[in-house]
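Troubleshooting log. The previous structure file for this entry was overwritten by mistake, so regenerating from the original sequence record. Sequence copied from the archived sheet and checked twice against the printout by T.R.
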Amino acid sequence: MAALLPLLIVFSLVRNLKYLAPFSMVANVLIATGMGITFYYIFNDLPTISDVPNFSTWSQLPLFFGTAIFALEGIGVVMPLENNMKTPSHFIGCPGVLNTGMFCVVLLYSTVGFFGYWKYGENTKASITLNPPQDEVPAQSAKLMIAVAIFLTYGLQFYVPMEIIWKNAKQYFGSRRLLGEYLIRISLVIFTVCVAIAIPNLGPFISLVGAVCLSTLGLMFPSVIELVTVWEQENGLGKWNWRLWKNIAIISFGVLGFLTGTYVSIQEILEGK
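Regenerated output below.
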């Protein structure tokens, strides 16, 4: 991981989403190819489904919540992506870029989760690409493709947090804002690499990120924002205050997942599971 630090720093210094789009397209192709190879191993000699447990233990439910909600990781780049589109009106609507993209994401996550567990059961690893025989060239190629794809999309995921941090930090650098921005970018990359090295156990860490960050960003905050927006509007809460009850239910679900998911994820990270 440390060997990739210079290249990650280069990607982090790109300040315009337009220049990151080609890398994202290449990453999508690599992911599709890598998952195609992985599906070949998954569908090859599937066991009888009656031999596979229908459910895991209740203690694993918070981990499932965190991992599943991690699928919403793209929510952070929604508004910047829409703002940088040539025709932003194409982003929402039916089908629209957002609906099409999220449909593909949900379909891919569901397919990999269902058939991956059907094939490997309790032996399913944090990354499904680690389950096929690692001494075979196709399996190694799939793992390499996914790794390269994640590397190529680092700049895109880095864009939003950097924009938020820099918006509040640029006032402290006076006339040396460009230098200050680059220093912050490099420091953040070094920090993320150090975290990756310190926590090699991917599964619980993904669950932790999902439980802490995405339960708030994807569930609680949108519900609170909607309530604040419509609260003083005439009939803004809808008939029988259905918007109020809907958002209370979503917020409660997010808080429950946040607390239980965070606790179990940290526990598993500390235990090295």
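The two ends are 21 Å apart (CA to CA). Archived copy saved in two places this time.
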